[in-house]
Design brief:
Layout lengths: L8 E6 L12 H21 L4 E8 L5 H4 L3 H9 L9 H12 L10 E4 L1
Parallel strand pairs: 1-2, 2-3
């Protein structure tokens, strides 16, 4: 973006609610998502002077083909522990990403937005 001379823009990274919890068997996944959240905050500070905002969306369990591969007990546990008691629809997560890319979020920067 900088090389292209962009003077205003938005970057939205994707993390997960799991980055904030300890889930046995998911060490590498959780570590990588935690790194994405730290990268988001660092990029936000470094790119702000150029008019580029950086934020992150951290969804909980989402009704995707990948989620369908989870063991049934883990899927039900995850759904039970969300405020709505169900998995998010992909378009519910996508609408938050779209908001962060829009001018409506022009003063939102360095945030990790939980979608759960």
């Amino acid at each position: 973006m900088l090389e292209a001379g962009v003077t205003e823009g938005a970057i939205v990274n994707l993390s997960t609610q799991t980055a904030k919890s300890i889930t046995p068997g998911y060490c590498c996944y959780v570590t990588s998502k935690g790194a994405i959240e730290a990268l988001t905050r660092s990029m936000a500070v470094e790119l702000a002077p150029y008019g580029i905002r950086c934020n992150c969306v951290a969804p909980g369990i989402t009704n995707t083909p990948k989620a369908a591969l989870l063991p049934e007990t883990l899927l039900r546990y995850a759904e039970k522990n969300t405020p709505f008691g169900r998995a998010a629809r992909p378009e519910e997560v996508a609408s938050v990403v779209a908001f962060l890319c829009s001018p409506d979020s022009s003063y939102v920067i360095g945030e990790i937005i939980n979608v759960a």
